[in-house]
Amino acid sequence: xxxxxxxxxxxxxxxxxxxxxxxxxxxxxxxxxxxxxxxxxxxxxxxxxxxxxxxxxxxxxxxxxxxxxxxxxxxxxxxxxxxxxxxxxxxxxxxxxxxxxxxxxxxxxxxxxxxxxxxxxxxxxxxxxxxxxxxxxxxxxxxxxxxxxxxxxxxxxxxxxxxxxxxxxxxxxxxxxxxxxxxxxxxxxxxxxxxxxxxxxxxxxxxxxxxxxxxxxxxxxxxxxxxxxxxxxxxxxxxxxxxxxxxxxxxxxxxxxxxxxxxxxxxxxxxxxxxxxxxxxxxxxxxxxxxxxxxxxxxxxxxxxxxxxx
Length: 310
Hints:
By secondary structure, this protein is mainly α. Helix content is 55%, strand content 1%.
């Protein structure tokens, strides 16, 4: 039930694994004690670092302890223990989620130089810079591989053939849909996105699956080498919305048009619908500044203006 319990357990396990006895002694702070000074230095380095520090919390099976002292247990602690056990079982069942998180982490690292934690990635999928709830849900489902494509069809008898892309003759994963498939017209969409971002002095060439789904974490720097929130905001809004747009194009073609090659969206159609989406996003963003549509008005008006004009 304690915060950072994994780190504490790993620390205690390391102490228990020593052959000799371990004794703890309280040292007065700022007394020029070598070990204490070094600890303060490490704390400072960790606090100022832009990257998350990796901590190995793995515990050897023979050193793992389970259970709790009956004299110290409470109803709250017992309930928290049950929840942790259920989460651990759920984590084992979702290997695909773990794999996708690593792919996203790598994509973000290639684009920003940062290595985000799982918590940061999940938080970014709910970023307020992603305009619509349906887009945030799309990203969340993509990370969990809940969408009806690829593996999900393989689990249904007589529908296994739907796991294959009929145009490209390969497995239809979400990565394929967003970055490779000819039927989704993703190449046209990302070309338009890059052109729009270049107009705002944002150069984005790495249209990889990890970079797209991890768009909620952004850290663009311009010529002055300073961070620009307006660039980050525009990137998050545009990339997330257009990834969802590509998914919609795919669903229309596969479900409504039943994979008819002649009914794949034309370049003109994609361009017109893309332009309509951008205009709608701009309209929604401007409406968020009006008390008529948004009584709380939590968005900075200057940031909204700079996103599109500044």
